[in-house]
Amino acid sequence: MKISMHALSVDLFAPALGNLSSVLQKAAASAAQRKFEPGVLLAARLAPDMLPLTRQVQIAADIAKNSVARLAAQEPPRFEDTETTIEQLQARLARTIDFLTSVPASVLEGSETRDIRLPTGGGRTLEFKGLEFLQRWAIPNVFFHITTAYDILRHNGVELGKRDFLGSGT
Amino acid sequence: MKISMHALSVDLFAPALGNLSSVLQKAAASAAQRKFEPGVLLAARLAPDMLPLTRQVQIAADIAKNSVARLAAQEPPRFEDTETTIEQLQARLARTIDFLTSVPASVLEGSETRDIRLPTGGGRTLEFKGLEFLQRWAIPNVFFHITTAYDILRHNGVELGKRDFLGSGT
Questions:
Q1: What is the pLDDT of residues A1-58, one digit of tens each?
Q2: Could you tell me if A18 lies within 8 Å of chain B, comparing CB atoms?
Q3: How does residue B169 score in pLDDT terms, banded at 50, 70 and 90?
Q4: Would you call B157 an interface residue with chain A, using a CB distance cutoff of 8 Å?
Q5: Half-sphere exposure at residue B78, Cβ-oriented, CA atoms within 13 angstroms
Q6: Tens of pLDDT, residues B9-52
Q7: By the 8 A CB rule, do A162 and B59 touch?
């Protein structure tokens, strides 16, 4: 069986972002049950110099979207970072998943050897081949932000388990 | 270029566990500089019902090791969970990386369609094909525990940045 770049990107990221949306649903239910504004959770951080939940969700979605677009040599859709509610973040995730799953495996064919140039802060540019870009940058990064979103919620008393993170059938 | 199961497992997990070892090195230095026992960090948790740092590191390493062994249809080496210091956890990570990198790509060839049966708690058994096992279970799980280890340390004031998590050249 041939293993595709699609299997290493879209097939990893779309379900993981879907699971994150379910995790956010439980966060909304927890806030309602404990009678506080869900915005408290959206602004929560694990350290003063770490990003709050809203940004963790936005960044997880953007890294998945932009990474697949880079590999596909497409201009990614741009989403403004304007979400202020859990529902809006879930809509952002849904739009991101729609984009990811709209990219067919054929478009990513051969992208394992594509040159990826990634401008970062401070004027640096990272350079990777497509496969290495997924292995060393995109995959760890997407799971970093999804896990940190989960950890922020667990730290704030939302009842979640590993199966919420891993998704149905696990 | 052919994308291998090795590229989706060993090549993802070994560098990520190496980066975790560097993160632990910074944790040791932070404890020394702030003049407290490093064991305080090893026992730290993000929630009372989440696992402490030591277990996050052990589990990240074990899921990587056992997942690759399953795909290779090998009996994985067993490591006792006896570590009580950062140095011992780093040695555990080094032994795990040694095992991972000892598995040649040829042994994982064809494992994308191998039947993987994974006993979980409560008498359930998860069933996957090899590729799906990596996508839905092993990869998210390994990064979950590595990220949570990082998050525990950040929450406890250890000075770390995303580049410590992603590793050199990022």
A1: 789 999 999 999 999 999 999 999 999 999 999 999 999 999 999 999 999 999 999 9
A2: no
A3: confident
A4: yes
A5: 2
A6: 999 999 999 999 999 999 999 999 999 999 999 999 999 999 99
A7: no
In B, minimum Cα distance to A138 occurs at: B166
Report the largest interatomic distance among the alpha carbons of chain A, rounded to a whole angstrom: 52
CA dist A66 and A71 (Å) reads 9
Read off the pTM: 0.97
Hey, what amino acid is at B159? E
Per the listing, tokens 């009996």 go with B75
Facing residue for A143 by CB, picked from B143, B151, B162: B143
Burial (CB < 10 A; 0-12, 13-18, 19+), residue B25, is middle
CA dihedral A23, A26, A32, A33 (to 10 degrees): -140
